[in-house]
Every structure is written in structure tokens, then in C-alpha cells.
Amino acid sequence: MPYPPIEPYFTGRLKVSSIHELYYEISGNKEGTPVVFLHGGPGGGVDAADRTFFNPEKYKIILFDQRGSGKSTPSACLEENTTWDLVKDIETLRQELKIDKWHVFGGSWGSTLSLAYAQSHPDRVKSLVLRGIFTLRRSELQFFYQEGASHLFPEAWEEYLGPIPVEERADLILAYHAQLNSVDEETRIRAAKAWSKWEMATSKLYVDPAHIARAADDDFANAFARIENHYFVNTGFMRDGQLLEKQEIDKIRHIPTVVVQGRYDVVCPATTAYALKQVFPELEFHIVPDAGHSSREPGTAKLLTQATDKFAEL
Fold first, then answer.
1. Enzyme catalytic residues
2. In Å, what is the CA distance from 231 to each residue of 225, 226, 228?
3. What digits encode the pLDDT tens for the residues 233-279?
4. What pLDDT, on the 0 to 100 scale, is given for residue 161?
5. Is the CB of residue 144 less than 8 Å from the CB of residue 267?
6. What residue stretches are annotated with the AB hydrolase-1 domain (predicted)?
7. Between 207 and 46, the higher pLDDT residue
8. Domains of the chain listed by start with CATH number
9. Buried (b) or exposed (e) across 258-271, using 16+ Cβ within 10 A?
């Protein structure tokens, strides 16, 4: 199971462009093997509990908020905010910390970014621990934001539809894009909360009111919804299915990789993790029979921690 909570021994800020400055923190063992945690969303930001997947006696644990997320500034900024900007930021942070190679851990959008980073810099990655695989294919976005998950959570779906006029519902991601970028703040915040609540309400096998309550926070919802939607409208700034292409996977076959996937994950359904396993059979693949999307569910958290324990000596 996850390790007890710890506090960072260092926090810093890193200027990565003329616009963006990132918050980052380091905890655990100063002399330990380095691991970088890539959070979800995009736009989700890091949380204190994210440190607990790693043995603090063995790992130098590095967390950071991606552009526009969490404590990074400016909040919710979409300018100069693409997958490849974030890949560049990970490298910039690695160089800033004078790390040669590190372990990479990411779930949901963090798994997307982990794959994109590893495929761009395969010589810098010691291992990959991935959860809730998401590759931003059009089919994945359609399932969760247009039709699919709607059949499983009809009452939450009705709330998600709320801000969007009936005549604009043929493309909900695009319709939300207009409202999330409205000049009217009330329109933006209402849309951001509805968008965020939809994901929070569907992320766990057993719906957690405390998790859903995060969507009520104006600042969190605004960054989370605006950045997610920005990436989805732009299909992740990648070719559809790029991360699963053979020539891309060939770049990372040598990297020890563990995938942990909740059987009842409706945010990032198991079909994508299975597609990754088909093209990357060398990876270690786990389906958690009693879990949804969240990394905090017991079976998922246990397997993620076991994976990082296994890689701690690499």
C-alpha cells in the first residue's frame, strides 16, 4: 500500500518560457534514485498524496505542476501550452536538477505525457509506471465526452449537458470550448464547474462526494476544465493514435514498463490500455478487477506502489 504522507524538503519555481513559471517540489531521500510524477488532467495539478506512491528512503521524489495548473503561473493559461511544451518542460526540469536519468510515473493524462516524453527522450527514462492509459484518440474523447460513459452515469450526464443549449450538443467538446473561453466570467465558471464535476463524478468505482466537491472550487475548475478542453479540441497536438504507432513504441521497448488499469475505468476505458499492451507486449500489464479510474482506489494504489518498489533499485 502507499507510504505515509511526507513533506517536501525543497520547493522551487522554474521559468520555462516568457509566460510560464512552474512550481516544483522535492521530497524523500536527497541521494535516492530520482522519479518524476506527471499529474493528470491536463490541468489537474499535483497533490500531497502523490508523494506516497514512492518509498521515501529510496526515492528522490519530484513533483511539479504543469503549465497553467496548480501553483504554476499564470493559472489556466492556454498560450504556449501544448503537449510538446510540457515534454520540453520535463527535460528543462531534469537538466535544472542535474539528473542524468529518472523514473517516470503518470496516470490518466499523466500516462499520455509519460509516453510522449519517453518517446521523445528514451535515453533519459529508467522505467515507466503508468495508470489509466489515455492516448487522446478521437474515439477515447468521444466515449467520455459525447456518447458512451453517458449511458452509465445518466444523472451526472444530465448535469454535464446543463450549460450547453440543445442545438449545440452535436459536438460537446467544441460547445464547451466556446463557453470556457467566453468573455463573461460567470459563463466561464459555470461551464468549468460542470465540465469538472462530470469527471469527478465518474472517476471512482464507488462515487466519492469529497472527490466531486473539488469541482466546486472556482480556481481548480477553471484551470482543469479550460486546459483539458484546450488539449482535447486540439487532439493533444498529435496525430490520432500517434503514441500507439509501432515506430513510436519501438523507441521505448527497452524501458521496463508497468501498466495498472481499473477494469471499470470509464474516464479512460481499458480498451486503450489493452491496445498499448498489443503493440508493446513487453510491458507488465495489470487489470484491477474492483477499480475505476482513480489512483487512490485500494487495488490500484497497491499495484502502483509495488511497481515503484520493484524499480527502486534500478
1. 108, 265, 293
2. 10, 9, 5
3. 999 999 999 999 999 999 999 999 999 999 999 999 999 999 999 99
4. 98
5. yes
6. 34-294
7. 46
8. 10-136+238-312 (3.40.50.1820), 139-236 (no CATH)
9. bbbbbebbbbbbbe
